[in-house]
Amino acid sequence: MPEPGSPQRRRLDRDRVLAEALALADADGLDAVSMRALAARLEVVPMALYKHVADKEDLIGGMVDAVIAGYARPAATGTWRERVRERALIARAAHLAHPWLREAIQSRRRRSAAVLGHMDAVAGEFIAGGFSVDLTHHVMHALGNRVWGFSPEAFDGGDDVGQPDGDPAALLRMMSERFPHVTAIALDASARNPSGSCDEQFEFEFTLDLLLDAFERLRAAGWESSG
Amino acid sequence: MPEPGSPQRRRLDRDRVLAEALALADADGLDAVSMRALAARLEVVPMALYKHVADKEDLIGGMVDAVIAGYARPAATGTWRERVRERALIARAAHLAHPWLREAIQSRRRRSAAVLGHMDAVAGEFIAGGFSVDLTHHVMHALGNRVWGFSPEAFDGGDDVGQPDGDPAALLRMMSERFPHVTAIALDASARNPSGSCDEQFEFEFTLDLLLDAFERLRAAGWESSG
DNA sequence: CCGCAAAGGTGTACGCTGTACGCCTTTGCG
DNA sequence: CGCAAAGGCGTACAGCGTACACCTTTGCGG
């Protein structure tokens, strides 16, 4: 019987659960985010969380999406290079602010809408900057983990953007509306390589050679760091 | 009372434990490697494992070291570029053969002797190819995760090569004997930046700009993949 | 050959995890 | 006002890593 003036405990909702999980992970690391510990912080019994979160994987996924969705928007000015660079630094800042992010992202199996949205935005910068869809595909792989906070190849399991129900045509239509650039890349890639959309060995060697070439140029130029 | 002819169970040793853990992880993934499941495969009680392995972290670490120590030696011929390239492909092959390796490596906090040995070998290729110690440092960071199967920055906790007892001078001597190149890099870096040996922000932007420059060259050249 | 210390294997037990299931309480809407 | 839906609770279970005490086997010095 809570007194009239007493602050009757607010009901839980998904956002409150995720926000508290974020705070807990920031403070004590991802391992400290157990259903019991999180419930205790919300002054609730552990099983209450399951009314707002399907299971622990969904909780972690929600945390990741919350961070990605909160990425700052870069200024819509400058060259593709400046804009991609800024997006990379924004992603890096998120990783500095949330050290658990790397581990959380790598524990996921499917691309969420938030992840696809970020990928689509970066792909859009390249394409608007004059990159072909094909080249955009490969440079996105090359950026990979280092720049995203997540590596495209960590998501071989496919996408997860809502309804898993039939009608592939409708799904495709929805995808090209919400994520036009990544959809274009996927279509282009599967046209070139019908067996599967990505040839991982090719991507690996593509990036490796890009880097080795760049190293050779620096070596030949007598590059050094402290000026 | 085992009969004379019956194959009296062989005693456990660390190598047998690690080998069985490898097999289990290859077959069913890293999550399937629990102390209990591993013990069952070895027809032994779970606690018996602790006579050969300090704890689970030590077990996983031992598995990683076993794989890295088994990296094939590249042919000692060709340019630095060919040799580094081959080492990268060897590391990638290990990851294809052991899909759990990425997760296992990223759960570690300290560099083992096996990891340091691999890093030292790659650093040695650059230095022998005419790279300065300084430049070698930065290109090693740039290769990072993508090419190693592990990212240097995943090991901010320092090294773990045996005795943690005093006498830093003796430790330094031992390090430069066993891992001359990484030691040279660490000394060079701390001379340039006394506060800490790596400026992560610098390394991040270094690699990012290397990649962005490379992308721009490909774009300007009208690069495309299928020839 | 004996004996004894060291090394190896066993059994039990504890605290922690995620979560299935059933019950009760609160909420919001027709 | 009444009732279905949503939210929160309590109990319970299987699995985890591992501390601790105990017994058994091994190998070596006398």
From TrEMBL, chains A, B:
Residues 11-71 form the HTH tetR-type domain. One of its GO terms (molecular function) is DNA-binding transcription factor activity. The keyword Transcription regulation applies. Keywords: DNA-binding, Transcription, Transcription regulation. Residues 34-53 bind DNA. It holds the Pfam family TetR_C_1. The keyword Transcription regulation applies. Gene3D superfamilies: Homeodomain-like, Tetracycline Repressor, domain 2. InterPro entries: Homeodomain-like_sf, HTH-type_TetR-like_transc_reg, HTH_TetR, Repressor_TetR_C, Tet_transcr_reg_TetR-rel_C_sf. It comes from the Bacteria. GO terms for biological process: negative regulation of DNA-templated transcription. This is TetR/AcrR family transcriptional regulator C-terminal domain-containing protein.
